[in-house]
Every structure is written in C-alpha cells, then in structure tokens.
Design goal:
With 257 residues, the chain is mainly alpha-helical. It is built from 8 helices and 4 strands, in the order αββαααααββαα. The strands form 2 sheets. It has a two-stranded antiparallel sheet. Strands 3-4 form a two-stranded antiparallel sheet. Helix 3 packs across helix 4, helix 3 crosses helix 7 and helix 6 crosses helix 7. The radius of gyration is 19 Å and the shape is globular.
C-alpha cells in the first residue's frame, strides 16, 4: 500500500525521485510539494480543488492525458501508456496531490497544448496524427528543458554560485556552441519561429509539460504493465546474485516498493 493510501505525507520530489531511481537516475523537477490526500484535517484534497476552481477531470480530459502519455510512451513490443490507464493516474495525482497553483498550471497547460497543436496543424491534439502529436510534444519538451536549465542557473546565481557549463544543443538551447544558455530566445512550438523568451527566475513556475511528462513516466512505470512487462519483475526478491547475465536491450529489473 502506498504512503498516500496510508495518509502519510509524501512530497512531490520524493514521489518523482522513486521513479527516477527506477529509470536509472533520470533527473526530474522538484520545487513544488505534493499535498497529502487531506490538505487540512478532515478536508479531502478534491473538495479543496473544487473550491479553488481547479475541479475534477472530465472523461474527455482523461482521454487527452491518455493520448499525451501514449505519445511519450507508445505501444511497442509491450503495451503503451494508454493500456496502463496512465491518463487516469495523472488526473488523480493532480487532483488529489498537487497544490492549487500547480493544478492551475497543469490544467491551463492542457488547453495551451491543444492550442499549440491547432496553430501548428490546424487540428486539436486529439484529432492530430501520431506524427503531428510527436512533433508538438518534442518541441514542448525542448521548451521545458530550456526553462529548467534557466531556472537552475537563476538559483545558482541567487546563491552566488558559478554557472554550470551545459553542452549546447543546436536548435534547442540557444546558438550552437553557446555553453551557458546565454541566448535568451525560444522557438515557438507552433511555427518554429524564434521569439523573445520570458525571463526565467529562481521562483518561476514549472513548465506544464514537465509536469505532464513526469506524471506519465511515474504512472506508467509504477503500473502493473510497466512493472511486469516494460520491466522485469520478480515477485519474491532477496536472494543474492553477485553476477547475473544481461544482454544489452533487455528490460531493467523493476524495484520493490
């Protein structure tokens, strides 16, 4: 049984760190805290969410989240995110565990994502082809990485620490060869044009697509499908095997909760 089911406090950094370890140390964003299912004694988080105008997710919302997650984690030789009902997991986590401010960012992000797809391909995300969806999410992923790098740099500057050199990525993090992301521009996800980027500070909110990607990974790789098919799961752990055969490309071993 999970910490949330037990009613114990678990912050967002810890929840994401768990799946990060499972995926081999993938770096995820922290910064904002998950709330326990009861934000205040006797007050369910979903009631508080409704009071702030964030509200529950509709069936259509969950379907959109399923397609977003499926684009990130498509079906291959194993079932994809939609088969694992990742959209419902994402909706539950946001409604029951995110702060009202982060809930608004996430929900506004769903609308923005649909608008970006409409601008780029003249159709909404649900009507877009798999290739069109992938193109939109790929560009949004570049945006959130750029935002995260800029936020990290702002945090270091606020603490008086020197910047960390980051290898430039052509077309993503400024001009090719720019080691410190000094080029404050961003590429418009809909048109591909370069626009002035908003200033990113240490207190800037998390990019909505980073939230979506985190929850898609967390939901999928902690689902039954993610645990037992995308990874290798052994029901009874504990025996010591100092050397186990491994062939490159084989699934990773699923951790035990």
């Amino acid at each position: 049984m999970s910490d949330i089911e037990h009613g114990q406090s678990i912050d967002r950094r810890e929840a994401i760190k768990r799946v990060g370890v499972m995926l081999g140390g993938v770096a995820f964003v922290g910064g904002t805290n998950l709330l326990v299912a009861c934000e205040k004694a006797g007050t369910p988080a979903r009631d508080s969410a409704a009071a702030t105008g964030t509200g529950p997710f509709t069936t259509q919302d969950v379907a959109l989240l399923d397609e977003i997650a499926e684009t990130i984690l498509p079906q291959t030789k194993t079932p994809g995110a939609k088969a694992a009902k990742t959209g419902a997991f994402m909706a539950l986590m946001v409604t029951d565990s995110y702060s009202p401010a982060d809930q608004r960012i996430f929900r506004d992000g769903m609308r923005q994502l649909d608008q970006v797809t409409q601008q780029a391909h003249k159709v909404g995300f649900m009507a877009a082809t798999p290739a069109q969806r992938l193109a939109v999410l790929t560009q949004l992923d570049r945006e959130q990485k750029r935002d995260m790098d800029a936020r990290d740099a702002a945090v270091r500057a606020k603490k008086g620490l020197p910047p960390v050199p980051i290898p430039a990525e052509a077309g993503v993090a400024g001009k090719e060869g720019d080691a410190y992301l000094s080029d404050q521009r961003q590429e418009n996800a809909a048109t591909g044009k370069t626009n002035p980027a908003p200033a990113i500070t240490a207190d800037s909110p998390t990019h909505y697509f980073r939230m979506m990607k985190e929850l898609a990974l967390l939901g999928y790789f902690t689902s039954e499908i993610g645990y037992t098919q995308a990874q290798r799961y052994e029901e009874t752990p504990g025996r010591w095997e100092p050397c186990a055969p491994y062939t490159k490309g084989e699934p990773a071993w699923a951790p035990h909760a």
